[in-house]
From TrEMBL:
Protein name: Chain length determinant protein
Signal peptide: none
Membrane topology designation: Multi-pass membrane protein
GO process annotations (BP): lipopolysaccharide biosynthetic process
Amino acid sequence: MTQDNYNGSDARRVDSEQIDLIDLVVQLWRGKVTIGACVIIAILLATGYLFVAKEKWTSTAVITQPDTAQIATYSNALNIIYGMSAPKVSDVQERVIDRFNSSLSALSESLNNQEQPEKLTVEPIVKTEKVPLQVTYEGQTAEAAQQQLARYIQHVDEQIAKELDVDLNDNIKLQIDTLSDSLKTQETVAQEQKDLRIKQIQEALKFAEQANITKPQVQQTQDVTQDTLFLLGSDALNSMIQNESTRPLVFSPAYYQTKQTLLDIQNLKIDPTTIHAYRYVMKPDLPIRRDSPKRALTLVLAVLLGGMIGAGVVLGRNAIRSYHPKP
């Protein structure tokens, strides 16, 4: 008997749920006009939003470090300035692209902090690698996004080229001063050596005159040392003093190498327009799909939202009508 009552209760509960679901569908069907009106209003609002909302298009470019030809003048200048201690071309390429990345990131921050922010992003394609870099810019039209991204990349490239040119000129001035000081030092040393040589001969001449030696007393001049120089005789020593006084300074090969390096550096002429800090892997593309607003998605959401609001209005209205307060 108890089991029969339990089964009967379950059956009534299932019937009640089915009746409630059917009743819900019937209520929604009867309120289809209200639901349709809400859907139409939502679509109209969405359409109005699509007309007034600002469009967003994203153009993308992929860049990597410059090739050898793009930094050839800069790299050659470094080789002339620093010689064997100049950095390798691969090191120069890495430094230049790092500098370009830093400047582009700084530009991105400044654009984002404007009264009307602009969205420029720079990030490596592979997180563990520095290059290649993906650069994106968000504009109000596809053409504007593409053109503005290209302008910003070119602007940063020209800025880096000017900075490298300034750095080179500063290094050139510093190296010219260093080499000029080195030449002056070597010239001073050579002059002192010449003066010392003349004094040594003059001292030997005094000894020769005191010893009354006028003619050479040795057969082989290569055997003469500083202490025995007076044995060459006063006549030979006087002639040597005259020759040493008019003889040009004697320099080591290092002096002439330094002078050649100085002349090469002084003749350096760098054109900043020949220096480029990046190379395109993919130029700024022309986007074919806008990021927002998305028309299809907006309209679909409007239909769903309008339907939900309409259904809520219908069900709420019927619930209020059928509500009877308990006595």
